[in-house]
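Q: Hi! First time asking for a complex rather than a single chain. Here are the components, and I think there are two in total. Is that enough to go on?
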Amino acid sequence: MTDTPIDRMARATPRIVARRVRGLSDRAIAWLFVAPTIFLLLAINIFPLIWTVRLSFTNYAANRPGREVEWVGLRNYERILTSEGIWANMQTTAHFLIWTITLQVLIGFTLAWLINRKFKGNDLLTTLIVLPMMLSPAVVGNFWTFLYQPQIGLFNYMIELVTGTPASSFSMLGPGGLAKWSIIIVDTWMWTPFVMLICLAGLRSIPDYIYEAAEVDRASKWRQFWTITVPMVLPFLMLAVLFRGIENFKMFDMVVLLTGGGPGNETLLASIDLKREAFEKWRTGYSSAYAIILFVTVFGLASVYVKALNKVKQR
Amino acid sequence: MKVRLLTATAVGALLSAGVASAQSNELTLCWAAWDPANALVELSKDFEAQSGIKMKFEFVPWPNFADRMLNELNSGGQLCDLLIGDSQWIGGGAENGHYIKLNDFFAAESISMDDFAPATVYAYSTWPKGEPNYYALPAMGDANGWFYRKDWFERDDIRAAFLEATGRELGEPQTQKELLEIAQFFQGREIDGQTVYGASIFTERGSEGITMGATGALYAWGFKYENTPGQYDMEGAVNSPEAVEALEFYKELYKTGTPPGYDNAYMEQSLDAFKSGQVAMAMNWFAFFPGLAADPTVGGDKIDFFVNPAQNQPASTLGGQGISVVSYSDNVEGALQYVKWFAQPDVQQKWWSMGGYSCHVSVLNDPGFKDSAPFAADFLAAMDNVYDFWQEPAYASLLLAMQDRLHNYVVADQGTAQEALDGLIADWTEVFEDEGKL
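A: Yes, that's all I need. Here is the structure of the assembled complex.
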């Protein structure tokens, strides 16, 4: 008699259960194994989603249990889509997304390209570069608030040192139009290493013999870069853009700690606004419609993007 | 087997009895995490000794206090037996059934609301406003006041410079415009080799900060929420010429009299700015004044206090809270026992002596009260003319709308004061329409 873990499990199975299972097909057993996951998925994701859709057509407020819930049809959607404030928040979110992704891709790819070369201290430098992404967003938000402090902050001090502009004459997180850029700087500082790591994986997956063949054909370094490196790293880059896009669309913690959405509504991202509507103003029906609109936006954009990614991978 | 079963059942029963007994002998009091809360912990030791009930405390920092506690109430949570909640929560607490109505209990225990200052009863206890339906006992009187560097104000060189610059003597400001003048005088001035600034004021955006700060000016100019109380007719009241002028004033104070970087500042930042010697004056709640007076660096002879200066009328923004019994508590009896104990005049006297602001008339009308602390007389003056924000069940929506409008205008420099207040009326109208009140 063998004594593998499977044998031991079989021996430990009560006879009554074993007899029942023996009668099941492979397909039924497969369903049996995935059923708990499907059940959890339905209970935790699908049901709340359907419930949210239903609530989005009502004036329900979760903090007013006694109030009669009215069916308001498309009124919540109409109010959201015609609200200047919400369009402004969407623009702020788009500004944040486009700039963080652009900067992270450019800097991340450059760093990966440089790190990919063999030199002394390469490993140590890589470790140092990836440190920011290991920190909690709450910690990052807090200490950048200090760095940006006009009177004692290191960031303002450095700007004064380099440009001669007095440190206390401008506020990175205050009025003056710099706050939008401040949050982009912090997110880029924190998440560029992530993009760098993905690009590095892409660069290291390119076989050396392709470059050797290009050398034999006397292709210049510039041509090798554009015809070998970029196309082969592109699927990795697109994956990084997808991850960062989804993450930054729902960005909340770091920006709340840095600016709280201010000054005014200058850095009020859609996710922060949604949280305020849902859990501070308690407009549950309205915020459900808001959430559905955001969900459809992300889902639509992500679907189109994934199709493009698959096309690039198949090339 | 039977013996084992019996033993297990007996142990189980004993354990459950123990848990139930522990629950009835414990009370959790929820409040904000600040100086008076620490005083209340000390004060409550007397209650523990007398009643045998163990007190537990859940204190939440101010910026998260409303979020945390309102979520707790809205979810029917049993964390708090007693809640010292903000005055603006009383409408929601009463209408949504979070707070127990205390009228019968007060009548049975001979607790009279006449024993408490009328302004505090109106603000902290009643819903609908002014009606004799009590959902809290006034626990902590408070208002927004000011403190300043008395040692700087008394220096001859500074006084001479101020006289030369303004043509008048440097002293506690009697009007809002004098306050601005003093703040601008100190702004960027060198004192003992350090650059100092005029005043630290509330500009915080996330919770209630800028509203609590700016209303100090708005009320002093005569700002009203409605033309007729209870009618929600805001046009001409919220955006009156006086209100516009007051808001323009607050913006000027922020732009020309506050330290750089204080664009999202509330209680903590105001205290930091003052304690670090950056500012000549600062606004904050009276609740912090005992701690400031005793501060080893800037307290004692270096500090003095003044009530929010008048402009068209004397007015201060109301702070403070009442203590309510949470309806979801599993120890309502114990909670009521605490309220009864807390309402006693001798307990109220001790509360004041430990740093809490009693609202009991026996304390406030005591001939020695005004001299009992350097800020006591200012506190009385402030409480005579306090104004509060909406206390409607939808107060959070109303407050956040005002936060947005004020921060956009004052800090982010967008639009005019008139546009900010007109926009505020539109926001509030939408809220009241949703509430079915318009």
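A: The mean pLDDT of chain A is 91. Let me know if you'd like any chain examined more closely.
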